Amino acid sequence: MKIFTRGSYLGFQTDILSYRDIIISKTEYKQKEDQSWHCHENPFFAYFLKGGNKELRKANEINCSAGTLLFYKAGEFHSNKDYIPGSRILHFEIDKNWFNENKLNPENMQQSEINNLTVKNIFTNIIREFSIRDDLSESSVQSLALYLFNLLIRQADKKPAPSWKYNLDKILEEQTVNKQSLANLAKKLKLHPVTLSRQFPQYYNCNFGEYLRQLRIQKAISLLAKKTIPISDIAEHCGFSEPSNFIRCFKKQKGITPDAYRKLL
């Protein structure tokens, strides 16, 4: 089994930026890439900007598309197949020395696929810094990396979420663009609406309405990768009544407009 050294991946790297212990790069993939099992010497994230593939891990299989975020521990074996031709991935790789200096342990990370919307918003900022590359970008990237790992490791240390959260996640994933009321969802979950309202921010770090907006924006991310789809069509498909509402909400969450984000992909 092959072990990839620092900054190396399957596919063809189109752009790379290195800051001592952090490497950010964009990589493009053909449909037929090497499907053999392999690993990497450093921990890293893979954020799908465009396209997708099928990710095989020892314990599970992940279907990836634009907006998918994966984490790999150092030495974690995996295999990839069925790339959509022209797939593009942003890799965010961190040298082991960085973790030692910052007293963080990547082995505490338990997740392979990361669905935390706050974390995905951090990656929007990393993509922006990758594009800006001015004299402040290195400091910004270092700060974002610290925020990222503190958030994820702190999340891993939390007590297991209650069963209602998993059920709610499933409902919202299947019905992201539908209008939802807290009362109706509480009924489906067999909870009192007051209980759901009180406990919701503990697990989602925001109120119910704001979280639904985040889900809709995340759904839009995968559509923005398809540059032939008009912004107005994406807004309608993701449940926004007007394109202006979509643009305003997207900019509030991501810091840039949908069109500007599309240009970074």
Walk me through the structure.
The structure is a single chain. With 265 residues, the chain is α+β, with helices and mostly antiparallel strands. The chain has two domains: 2-156, Jelly Rolls (Sandwich); 163-264, Arc Repressor Mutant, subunit A. It contains ten helices and ten strands. It has helices at residues 96-101, 117-132, 137-156, 163-174, 182-189, 193-204, 208-224, 231-237, 243-254, 258-264, and strands at residues 2-4, 12-19, 22-29, 38-40, 44-50, 52-57, 61-65, 69-72, 78-81, 87-94. It has a five-stranded antiparallel sheet. A three-stranded antiparallel sheet has the order 7-6-9, with no helix packed on it. A two-stranded parallel sheet has the order 1-4. Strand 6 and strand 7 form a beta hairpin. Helix 2 (117-132) packs antiparallel against helix 3 (137-156), helix 5 crosses helix 6 and helix 8 (231-237) crosses helix 9. The chain is globular and about 50 Å long. The mean pLDDT is 91.
Q: Give the end-to-end Cα distance, rounded to a whole number of Å.
A: 31 Å
Q: Write the CATH homologous superfamily of the largest domain.
A: Jelly Rolls
Number of helices: 10
> What proportion of the residues is helical, as a percent range?
40-55%
How would you write the strand order of the largest sheet? 2-3-10-5-8
Biggest sheet, open or closed, and with what strands and sense? Answer: 5 strands, antiparallel
Proportion of strand residues: 15-25%
Structural class: alpha+beta
The CATH architecture assignment of the largest domain turns out to be Sandwich
Task: Tell me the count of domains.
Answer: 2
